[in-house]
Amino acid sequence: MKSKLDQTGKSCSFKNYDLFQAKNDFNFEKRDWMTVQAEELPHGSQLIIGLNPPFGVNGSLANKFINKALTFKPKLLILIVPKVTRRLDRNKGGYDLIWEDDEICSGKSFYLPGSVDTQHKQLEDWNLKAPPLYLWSRPDWTSWHMGIAQYHGHIKHNNYLGLHAPDNFLSIFDGVPDDNGDILLQDCAPSFAL
User: Fold this and answer.
1) Number of domains in the chain
2) CA 114, 116, 120, 122: dihedral to nearest 10 degrees?
3) Domain that residue 25 falls in
């Protein structure tokens, strides 16, 4: 993701938190997400949060992680959570669902943090039932995010069609203003045809 953003002239700071050492330790901090404070992150209009939290029984742990993320008021919230998780459009000051995809996380998409085999190699796991990937927008950013999603074919005519290019879901960041406030959509051809 960082290299894609760099190519488009957008700068971004990244922070990754977990209690277990990550396989990809890019900007990783071994830390409990619940201890992160607002002053440690960018202001909500400059904040995009992605979560793949522990699910818990009936999504109870996932809901706690999401509630923590909502206290930061991010403009965009990307979630890998079970379907039983509370919908964000039903909360007070709710978020709007831009799209969801039930297939992008299927197969061998995840590794198990902290789990190693007898040769100390990271264990991976196949999803028998893949959790959906959701993209939620803060209401004051919804029309912007919806426009980007439509431009890239993730949705069409405000009707969800699913994610057409699961190998290139980072295209949601195309069209986000760079540090100068410029939008480079003309340089960003759609990554796939409808």
Assistant:
1) 1
2) -80
3) 9-139
Q: How far apart are CA 61 and CA 193, in angstroms?
A: 38
pLDDT digits (tens, 9 = 90+) for 133-169: 899 999 999 999 988 888 877 775 444 333 334 344 5
pLDDT tens sequence across 42-89: 888 889 998 888 888 988 999 999 999 999 999 999 998 888 888 888
The structure's pTM equals 0.68
- 167, part of any domain: no
Q: How far apart are CA 129 and CA 140, in angstroms?
A: 33
DSSP result, 130-192: PPPEEEEE-GGGHHHHHHHHHHTTSEETTEE---S-GGGGGGGGTTS--TTS---GGG---SS
